[in-house]
Protein 1
Amino acid sequence: MNHLPAATLLGQNVRRLCEMQGMSLDALAERLGWPGEKIADLVASSLDIALDQVDELSAALGVPPHELFDEVTMAENQTRQLRYG
């Protein structure tokens, strides 16, 4: 099994979690007090962030930090969307 780089997983999961919660990336940026460009770079996997920022992201999204780096298959994503709305 090929594993995706951490930056790619983080970007994909931030986008997925926002979509699942009906939150725009701009709303996430505002919640964090980060510029919108920083979130855009994050989801494009072109932003290096500190561990403290991972904690901020997980708190803003209401998930444990490890969930930001989970490899989620399409089937798991659909199940999570059904479960959480």
Note: The chain has a mean pLDDT of 86.
Protein 2
Amino acid sequence: MKIFECIHALKALGEETRIRIVQMLLEKERSVNEIAETLTITQYNVSKHLRVLREAGLLEIKKEGQQRFYSLAEDFQSHLSKNDNVLDLGCCTFRFDKAAK
């Protein structure tokens, strides 16, 4: 990842809920409703977290009718799959194979 991408990723992943969302999206794409139900937080808050992750370039959106499905961006997913679900930003490492507390 480029340095500016690392800074955006670090800011986006600096919140526990967003890390939990990324962990969920490692399994499969999901809608805002699915994420909200699983994490037991409001759809409004999920949408805010998804926006931060998307603006950092970590997520992609697929629209199907009125619903939007979120998945990890291809380059982010590729990086994680090559590194056993570990994102190394140089200054810190995020392990997505362990559940956030």
Note: The first helix runs from residue 3 to 12.
